[in-house]
Specification:
Layout lengths: L13 H4 L2 H10 L3 E3 L4 E4 L2 H4 L9 E2 L21 H7 L16 H12 L2 H22 L4 E3 H17 L7 H5 L18 H18 L5 H6 L11 H32 L1 H9 L4 H11 L5 E6 L3 E3 L2 E3 L4 E5 H4 L35 H18 E6 L1 H4 L22 E6 L1
Helix pairs in contact: 5-11, 6-7, 6-15, 7-11, 9-11, 11-12, 11-15, 13-15
Length: 419
Amino acid sequence: MQNYDQVDLFTDTSLIEDPYSYFEYLRSQGPAVYLPKHNVYAVTGFQDGLPVFSNHEVFSAAIAVNGPIPPLPFTPEGDDISEQLEAVREQLPYAGIIITEDMPQHAKTKSLMMGMITPARLQANHAFMGTLADRLIDEIIDKDSFDAIMDFGQPFATLVIADLLGVPEEDHPKYRILRSNLPGMIGNQGTPHDPLEEIGLYFWGYIEDRRANPRDDVLSRLAQVKYKDGSTPDILEVVKTATFMFGAGQHTTVLLLASALRVLAEDQELQQRLRDDRSLIPAFVEEMLRLNSPVKLEYRLVKKTTEIGGVEIKAGATLLLILSAMNRDPEVFEDPQQVKLDRKNGSDHVAFGRGMHACAGSPLARAEAKIGLERLFDRIANIAIDEEKHGPAGQRKFDYEPTYTLRGLKELHLKITPA
């Protein structure tokens, strides 16, 4: 095993290609391993990390996007920093979006989100997925090879969330090319432009227009959505929530589809098994979420001094929940490194988190993966790795996004045979 004593998870590019060996090293060091450079405690055990998701009195989501980078704008004092945190909360990166909010603001924003994503809207969106998948497959079906990310996964995920939020179809082309920035980029802590800003301006125009001139469409319902108490949110609040949903709705689905297609392209026997029995696809998707968790890490700020696994953790420290390690915990998942379609607890993973901050779009991501794979199987007789791009079996070369938070391929070139 490599010497990991001096490794910095947040800056070391050697962990981009294979973070799992490092995570297993941390598991071997104990239930909560102190990483002094950033005042972080790393948790790899499933049972140790699970209670953290629901303990909102002790753990804050205020730093949920970038973790300990940048550091807190204050020096923590004492065993309860709750008041210090609230005094500077608005200064923290990504303040004001649901993923970084604590109660009671989180509940208020979530009620707004749930008003946007109704069961009827989701059902209509599912029908759109099949049509969209076919349109994208039409663009690649006559090619010898295609990039599963930029030619399929990215436009598929982007336009599915655009449809869910009611973006007029004539505007879809300009959304298709917008890809929001990935969080936790190594060596790039300040990005000058985020495409989500442009998306936010689009949504501001939509909502402002629909409030003045309501129509019988999804955007009008979005413009008229209210909090649970019946009050009408400011346009900015609606735009922030819709824009966050747009960005978050891209990432996990794209990374999930890419990891699934890579595994299937490498394992022809497994691919054929899913082709022959489509009922196995949901179990396969759960295994991809567990084994190749799109979100590697979640972060919580420790508000009150506590302990995990007998290790004291002082207020002001960052708690690092390593989802990828929790999902490969051998005490919970038998043969955790293997794809097992008959795994009885396969859906118990924490790829989408747990508790009030669990990803609200997880049913959407699962549906996209299932429908996307089904349509690809229907239209394409065989999917294989493009060896000109990635090398022969046993010598594959894949490039991953340089982010410490997410796990995702930059590109995945596949050879295809039309059905």
